[in-house]
Design brief:
Blueprint: H1 3-25, E1 28-30, E2 37-39, E3 41-54, E4 73-85, H2 90-95, E5 99-108, H3 112-115, E6 116-133, E7 136-150, E8 168-181, E9 186-198, E10 209-221, E11 245-257, E12 260-263, E13 266-269, E14 274-286, E15 291-302, E16 331-342, E17 346-357, E18 365-374, E19 379-388, E20 392-404
Antiparallel strand pairs: 1-2, 3-4, 3-10, 4-5, 5-6, 6-7, 7-8, 8-9, 9-10, 11-14, 11-20, 12-13, 14-15, 15-16, 16-17, 17-18, 18-19, 19-20
Length: 411
């Protein structure tokens, strides 16, 4: 099975596990110890349009293409299903009107023959940053998923497009917007959106595509009459003060990546992808509901590290010309500092570290971006991206994790 097949199997698995987690916690609560049962979540739909500008990071976008056209404009349309904690609940007060769900987006860049008209499927989460008035609030939202339908690099049919190397690419988006409340059920949204598309270094080329633009949306919440009634705070919905504690995360991950291999005249793209496996062990100090700090021990085996060729090899290489180092030269052990932003279901993290054991390619300063998707109090799915020196793509980290001494992921 090719790499694209494994990507889709992984995404379907994540989706099934997330739906299972939601179904387990989407129960009912009471507004007092003897009151009537109430829904834990309310549900809704959101429609968005995004006019966007494409950052001119490649000569291909600046006119070095078969059409000789400048490619700088993009537009997209999105449909999102979301669920949020009911107004007045303890979780709504603790996390700032947090919501999460799944979305679908259609993109056009004005040149379908050169880039295609990709579609994106993604998870998302957002929350209120500040309430500016009873009818106006400031929010953030992130999206993470996959996009497919790209016109990709081909040495014969599309040699100028050195931005997108695969038909399936990661989709990452961040939004900051104003929510204009027209009624309890209906709101308008206006804001700023930034997006990134790339294949996570699973295939070369991997320059990627970046956009920035506006975001205009209509949000519909399907409240029932009882959902808007004030909650009493004498029962299970009462807000509980947070007590700091230490939890321990174990993560096991694997993926694959392409590699630039040194030749006599520079670097040449590897003719195949190489496996990566690793683990993280991170004691984390839980400061409050939303913040964790810690240090992680990071172990990695990289099958593409420290590969080399004979000195008389020039230009493009094939597998028979690649020499492998001793097995021990493809293992590394590092230490990284971690900061995590904690919300129901999802935890977003960043980290910086260095390998204290590792030779050649593995003697490096690295950065990490991670997303943990909770499936229970003790288990989560892990999606991460490893960079070196802040700009060189390294590899994806797709795996599972287990948390010890963790507290409830939701109220």
């Amino acid at each position: 099975m090719n790499n694209t097949g494994w990507i889709w199997i992984t995404v379907v698995f994540w989706g099934i596990m997330l739906v299972g987690a939601v179904s387990r916690v989407d129960g009912q609560e009471r507004d007092s110890l003897t009151g009537p049962p109430l829904r834990k979540f309310t549900h809704g739909l959101k429609f968005e349009g995004r006019p966007e500008y494409i950052f001119q990071t490649s000569s291909f976008l600046q006119g070095d293409n078969p059409e000789g056209k400048l490619i700088k404009g993009a537009s997209s349309f999105h449909l999102k299903y979301f669920f949020r904690y009911r107004p007045g609940s303890a979780a709504e007060r603790a996390y700032g009107d947090v919501y999460q769900g799944v979305g679908f987006g259609y993109y056009t860049f004005g040149e379908p023959r050169l880039l295609g008209n990709p579609v994106a499927f993604y998870l998302f989460q957002g929350a209120r940053i500040a309430r500016l008035s009873p009818w106006l609030s400031f929010y953030y939202e992130w999206n993470l998923g996959l996009s497919t339908g790209w016109k990709t690099y081909d040495s014969y049919d599309n040699p100028y497009n050195k931005m997108m190397g695969s038909r399936v690419n990661a989709y990452i988006n961040a939004e900051f917007y104003l929510r204009w409340k027209l009624s309890p059920a209906l709101s308008l949204t206006t804001g700023l959106t930034v997006s990134h598309f790339s294949n996570g270094n699973t295939t070369i080329p991997n320059a990627g595509l970046n956009t920035i633009g506006g975001n205009f949306g209509l949000e519909c919440n399907f409240y029932r009459q009882e959902d808007l009634k004030p909650l009493k705070t004498t029962g299970v919905s009462a807000y509980q003060p947070f007590r700091p504690y230490v939890s321990y995360d174990f993560v096991f991950f694997g993926s694959w990546h392409s590699q630039g291999i040194k030749t006599a005249d520079g670097l040449s793209a590897s003719p195949e992808s190489y496996p990566v496996f690793g683990f993280n062990f991170a004691p984390m100090y839980n400061v409050n509901h939303r913040l964790r700090l810690g240090v992680s021990l990071d172990g990695t085996f990289d099958g593409g590290a420290n590969l080399y060729t004979e000195y008389d090899v020039y230009g493009q290489i094939d597998k028979s010309q690649i020499l492998r180092p001793a097995l021990g030269d493809q293992f590394a052990l590092g230490l990284s500092g971690r900061v995590e932003y904690v919300m129901p279901f999802f935890t977003v993290g960043i980290g910086m570290g260095a390998n204290v054991i590792g030779k050649g390619d593995l003697n490096m300063f690295y950065q990490l971006f991670t997303l943990k998707i909770a499936v229970s109090r003790a288990a989560f799915l892990h999606v991460g991206y490893n960079l070196r020196e802040f700009h060189e793509p390294n590899f994806l980290m797709l795996g599972v994790g287990f948390r010890f001494n963790g507290k409830s992921i939701v109220f």
